[in-house]
Amino acid sequence: MVGGSIRxxxxxxxxxxxxxxxxxxxxxYAQQLAANMSGHLVELGKPDQxxxxxxxESHHVDISRINGASIEEDLHNRDFTINAMAYELSSGKLIDxxxxxxxxxxxxxRLVSHNAFENDPLRLLRAxxxxxxxxxxxxxxxxxxxxxxxxxxRNSAGERIREELLKMLSTSISxxxxxxxxxxxxxxxxxxxxxxxxxxxxxxxRQPNAFAHTLDAYGHLENMLTDLNQFxxxxxxxxxxxxxxxLNILLKCCILFHDIGRPRIDAPDKNGTxxxxxxxxxxxxxxxxxxxxxxxxxxxxxxxxFIVQHHAQPYSLFAADQNKTLAPKDLTRFFMECTDRxxxxxxxxxxxxxxxxxxxxxxxxxxxxxxxxxxQDDFAVxxxxxxxxxxxxxxxxxxxxxxxxxxxxxxxxxxxxxxxxSGKKMTRADALRLAKxxxxxxxxxx
Length: 446
Description:
With 446 residues, the chain is of the alpha/beta class. The protein contains 22 helices and 8 strands. 56% of the residues lie in helices and 8% in strands. Helix 6 (123-134) runs antiparallel to helix 9 (174-183) and helix 11 packs antiparallel against helix 13 (245-257). The mean pLDDT is 91.
């Protein structure tokens, strides 16, 4: 038995997957094991690097041929010392050639050999992923080697990078390791779009540059996702019961990408202050390209694109509220556009506001109160109303006005629904009168 399963057992964890290396034919051993485990075989990998997986109800066991002339040579070709131990099943002997148990006790991630990153560049990112998952520190010499070899990460397949990254983001301490990745430049090799943010500073932020703001906002978001009750009013937490591990990860991706379009929309005013008007759409489109590069699913890509594209809307609503110009219809339009993603957008905005102004400033508290109010009151009312059937439908438009199905149907029905959800008491007759008025204005403008 080799690899991470040994590490987990020594840490007192129960592995779900086990890795076994054999000197002879892996398939023959796998067949015997499958019979004993009441499992079945799955062949994985390339023809010259075949891995046989035995799948049972409770475990997966991956079986491969020893890489080298001996188990010691095999271990020498592995990534980090804590993953380079073997347990000889026949004798019960633990094989530790590199002081792996000492590193495990000291919570250190250390390279096995100087060419480990050249053999598999994905190990550059895996060091941070393991560090975040186990709360281990990366040895200084290993960090130096990562910085020297950071360029090699471009040779790794996009989907492999995505999987390592998302596993890291799933932890509650990923902010610390993202910061270390930035220091070693690895983060900018994976996401070169983030590097240009270092050149720009917001006129209204306490952060030294846009990248520092992004990283700080990420930290605030991670803290909130880890313990919503500690950082949000109790009235807000029911709106976040839908959050799960996947959505938490996607929200972290959103805040990491939300400003990457700013350097592309650089419009300094007469005082030389960079304003970046309309950067949201550019950031969203660039985030979509990143998702494509790293093979995100269509559903996850669409979620990230949506949140990034709309992330500034809560601030516009807040500014209007502060200026006493926020109309009920403004909120209705926001809710209709964002629907169930509204709480997620507000959480993103709260984290960003904390970064710009600090957690305890008057403006941050005012925005938090605003978010609590619109979610607890306005959004709750909107959800209740929107769950009831519309007053009229396309069939009614055909019967009442002799219209034929067209894009105009959608515009009329959307207009009427907006009026209904904005708080006005309406009947079916009212809806038909509004439709008639809309049609009249539409014909006059044509």
